[in-house]
Design brief:
The complex is a heterodimer. By secondary structure, chain A is mainly alpha-helical. Chain A has a domain of 85 residues. Chain A is elongated. The N and C termini of chain A lie far apart (80 Å). By secondary structure, chain B is an alpha+beta fold. Chain B has a single domain, classed as Alpha-Beta Plaits (2-Layer Sandwich), CATH 3.30.70. In chain B, the strands form 4 sheets. Chain B has a 4-stranded mixed beta sheet with strand order 9-2-11-10. A two-stranded antiparallel ribbon of chain B has the order 3-4. In chain B, strand 5 and strand 6 form a beta hairpin. The termini of chain B are far apart. The chains are: A mainly alpha, B alpha+beta. Chains A and B meet through helix 4 and strand 1 of A and helix 1 and strand 1 of B.
Chain lengths: 140, 265
């Protein structure tokens, strides 16, 4: 059994294997071969107002990773418990609203395109917030 | 020996290596969902100016609302601030939160075969009744419609899947369905209140967003005193005083839904 080590159709099989691996790894090497550049995450542009405020409702790191959970909790709390004021750990109060008024998310981060869309587009996520909520700037 | 086990050993090793490679991404995924490690210490509260009650109700004095033109500013005030698409001309796709109705349609369960001329031609302002025992809440499969502790029957537009069970259940026709994207049909958009999207049901919310900041409902404000809003459980409230003074009726009381909108006739 072990004596017969001959591989039949060796050339075809090896060539086929190489072709298979090349094809299956296409997305990996394609980028470097054809575009020759690596992708970089977009830079978020803070509005003047946000810069002046220096802090968001929570720390920058927290907002980076948890803003979707935070917004989810906000919408449930506002609609179901009618609680609309968020007292952050730093003691300041915020209006728990995405788009209404100066004390809401968009009240400070006035430029939705630069602040929200940039990263969402890069990460290819399309949250449906804006199907209903209105960016005051985009209002017709 | 080697010749015998070569392939099997290779397969075993390959399997273990594959497991090892797969463990990395899984661990990372859990690490991400674990959050930033920051303790949640924030508090969420109501506005200090928020109006609180145990059973919000409305009394509509039809003696003060004689013609359709009396109702117009009231309807407009509501539909304006809530971004209701009033420009839909197709009656089947119409969206309304508050609208005029004839006596025979508003109060079909009154026994009177012959109503007096005045009631017959009076436009009655109808809206969601914010029932004590709301059938729409019972049928909603996602709990998108729910009853708040203060008696308001509210919709969570985020959660509505557009099944329209609530529309079938509501005996007052108070609910409208967005058959198409409502945005092009809104006269003037007010960014303070979201619009709706295609595929959700909507209705009057007793101006929950205004009560939360200490304001009266928009219709009551625009009505010059013809609509009074207050807490039905408070004997000293304006609505209770009005109901004590004048005889009032409710829509389809026999159904047992317990409407919170009263009509002084």
């Amino acid at each position: 059994m072990s004596k017969n080590k001959k591989m039949y159709n060796r050339n075809i099989i090896v060539a086929g294997l190489i072709l298979f691996i090349a094809l299956i790894t296409f997305p990996v090497w394609n980028y470097y071969v054809f575009s020759g550049e690596t992708s970089t995450a977009p830079e978020i542009k803070l509005s003047e107002k946000a810069k002046a405020a220096k802090e968001c409702v929570r720390s920058k790191e927290y907002m980076k990773t948890e803003h979707m959970q935070l917004l989810d909790v906000w919408r449930d709390t506002v609609v179901r418990e009618a609680k609309r004021v968020y007292v952050s750990p730093n003691g300041k109060s915020y209006n728990m609203s995405l788009s209404s008024g100066d004390n809401s998310c968009l009240g400070c981060h006035v430029d939705k395109a630069e602040f929200c869309d940039k990263c969402h587009n890069y990460a290819s996520v399309s949250p449906y917030c804006w199907d209903c909520h209105i960016d005051p700037k985009e209002k017709k | 020996m080697m010749e015998n086990c070569g392939r099997r050993r290779f397969l075993k090793l390959a399997g273990i290596s594959a497991l090892g490679l797969a463990a990395g991404p899984v661990h990372n995924a859990f690490a991400v969902s674990g959050g930033s490690g920051e303790e949640a210490t924030a508090e969420m509260t109501k506005n200090e100016s928020a109006m609180t009650g145990d059973h919000w109700a409305m009394v509509i004095d039809t003696r003060k609302l004689q013609t359709e033109s009396d109702l117009e500013p009231i309807i407009e005030a509501c539909h304006n601030i809530h971004n209701v698409p009033v420009n839909i001309t197709d009656k089947k796709h119409e969206i309304k939160w508050i609208w005029p109705e004839e006596f025979k349609h508003a109060f079909p369960s009154t026994d009177n075969h012959y109503v007096n001329e005045k009631a017959k031609h009076l436009p009655f302002l109808v809206l969601c009744n914010h029932c004590e025992n709301p059938p729409c809440v019972r049928v909603c499969p996602t709990q998108a419609t729910f009853k708040r502790d203060d008696g308001i029957v509210l919709m969570d537009f985020h959660r509505c899947i557009g099944c329209r069970f609530c529309m079938a259940a509501c005996p007052y026709g108070s609910r409208s369905f967005n058959f198409k994207d409502p945005r092009p049909y809104i006269e003037e958009t007010h960014p303070e209140f979201p619009t709706r999207m295609k595929g959700v049901v909507e209705k009057c919310n007793f101006c929950a967003e205004r009560l939360a900041v200490g304001k009266m409902p928009a219709c009551a404000e625009a009505s010059n005193g013809a609509i009074v809003f207050g807490d039905l459980d408070d004997p000293e409230s304006d609505v209770r005083k009005l109901l004590k003074e004048s005889y009032a009726i409710r829509r389809k009381p026999g159904l047992g839904t317990g409407p919170s909108v009263y009509y002084i006739v």
